[in-house]
């Protein structure tokens, strides 16, 4: 392990990540490792520096996560950060973005993501993928009755209701499991209504760093039955309420999806979204045993990924070599 001799002597990686992301990733350990083992400088992008005063390319590569900022450009601070990065790229087009800003935008919308994931249903049948049925409700939909909408999409209760916006606001993480038409009215349009798939309270979180993937399993939402009738609201960024958890003593059966199937899914996401640092959530239908991909997250915390720092910097080097040689 060590510095690649084909890299420039002053090889520098600029980054912009939120303070909370830096803390969760223990980013300072990554910065130190890059310097000590690779002699690579990893430095924060100085958003206060006048771009007009920068005469030479300040970074060879940029790593950034701006999904929250892109999701709320009405906030002047967010717009300033996005504009700064874009201006930097415009002035120094030889800077390599690991995942470009344009590629981060589709992750903001459940509309885009759900349609993308729906296409996975058309891949080879032996992969055993069947993603949830869904309906997208536009803001101007006459919502006197959602029953016909669900009937047309062949969706039965219970369902999951979510905002179309996947990040950039607190509301984007609020969702609910709904057992009747009346309670759907508690959610604002535009929204995504998705069938709920019982999956024995296990979710498989797949982390992708380029071609590398690692799978970890976590406890998830308990199985629901159609005889229930009480709306369950929750924030997906916080611990689940007890009403969503499996009962004590319930045996959680691990049915780890095959790595080859998950690799196909990962490559499909990369091809369609042009991102390389992401995670996606997979559940296994407890009746049909088919896989369902229920979420994609750009640049998650990669919790549980072995040797994450080495994998990340090796990926950054590979992206730089590939893109700078084009």
Automatic annotation (TrEMBL):
A Pfam family recorded for this sequence: Ins134_P3_kin_N
Function: Kinase that can phosphorylate various inositol polyphosphate such as Ins(3,4,5,6)P4 or Ins(1,3,4)P3.
Cofactor or coenzyme needed: Mg(2+)
Gene Ontology MF annotations: ATP binding; inositol-1,3,4-trisphosphate 5-kinase activity; inositol-1,3,4-trisphosphate 6-kinase activity; inositol-3,4,5,6-tetrakisphosphate 1-kinase activity; magnesium ion binding
Name used for this protein in its record: Inositol-tetrakisphosphate 1-kinase
Domain of life: Eukaryota
Assembly, per entry: Monomer.
Domain Inositol-tetrakisphosphate 1-kinase N-terminal: 13-102
Organism placement in taxonomy: Eukaryota, Amoebozoa, Evosea, Eumycetozoa, Dictyostelia
Binding residue positions for ATP: 110, 162, 194-205, 220
Ligand binding (Mg(2+) 2): 295, 297
Reactions listed under catalytic activity: 1D-myo-inositol 3,4,5,6-tetrakisphosphate + ATP = 1D-myo-inositol 1,3,4,5,6-pentakisphosphate + ADP + H(+)
GO biological process annotation, one example: response to lithium ion
Record family assignment: Belongs to the ITPK1 family.
UniProt cofactor note: Binds 2 magnesium ions per subunit.
Gene3D superfamilies for the chain: ATP-grasp fold, B domain
UniProt source species: Dictyostelium discoideum (Social amoeba)
Amino-acid positions noted as binding Mg(2+) 1 in the UniProt annotation, renumbered to this chain: 281, 295
Residues holding 1D-myo-inositol 1,3,4-trisphosphate: 21, 65, 173, 205, 297, 301
Keywords in alphabetical order: ATP-binding, Kinase, Magnesium, Metal-binding, Nucleotide-binding, Transferase
Assigned EC number: 2.7.1.134
Inositol 1,3,4-trisphosphate 5/6-kinase ATP-grasp domain residues: 129-317
């Amino acid at each position: 392990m060590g510095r690649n001799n084909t890299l420039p002597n002053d090889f520098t990686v600029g980054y912009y990540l939120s303070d909370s992301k830096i803390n969760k990733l223990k980013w300072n350990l990554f910065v130190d490792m890059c310097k000590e083992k690779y002699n690579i400088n990893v430095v924060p992008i100085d958003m206060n520096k006048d771009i007009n005063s920068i005469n030479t390319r300040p970074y060879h590569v940029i790593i950034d996560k701006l999904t929250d900022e892109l999701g709320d450009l009405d906030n002047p601070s967010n717009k300033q950060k996005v504009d700064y990065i874009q201006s930097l790229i415009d002035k120094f087009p030889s800077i390599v973005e690991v995942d470009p800003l344009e590629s981060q935008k589709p992750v903001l919308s459940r509309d885009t993501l759900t349609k993308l994931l729906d296409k996975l249903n058309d891949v080879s049948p032996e992969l055993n993928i069947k993603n949830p049925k869904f309906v997208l409700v536009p803001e101007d939909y006459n919502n006197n009755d959602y029953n016909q909408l669900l009937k047309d999409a062949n969706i039965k209760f219970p369902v999951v209701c979510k905002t179309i916006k996947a990040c950039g606001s607190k509301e984007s993480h609020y969702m609910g499991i709904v057992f009747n038409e009346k309670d759907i009215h508690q959610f604002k349009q535009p929204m995504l209504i998705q069938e709920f798939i019982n999956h024995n309270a296990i979710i498989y979180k797949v982390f992708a760093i380029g071609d590398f993937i690692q799978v970890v399993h976590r406890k998830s939402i308990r199985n629901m039955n159609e005889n229930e009738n009480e709306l369950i609201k929750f924030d997906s960024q916080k611990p689940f309420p007890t009403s969503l958890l499996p009962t004590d003593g319930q045996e959680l059966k691990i049915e780890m999806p095959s790595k080859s199937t998950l690799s196909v899914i990962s490559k499909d996401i990369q091809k369609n979204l042009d991102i390389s640092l992401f995670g996606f959530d997979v559940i296994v239908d407890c009746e049909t045993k088919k896989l369902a991909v229920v979420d994609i997250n750009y640049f998650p915390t990669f919790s549980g990924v072995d040797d994450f720092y080495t994998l990340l910097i090796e990926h950054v080097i590979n992206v730089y070599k590939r893109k700078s040689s084009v």
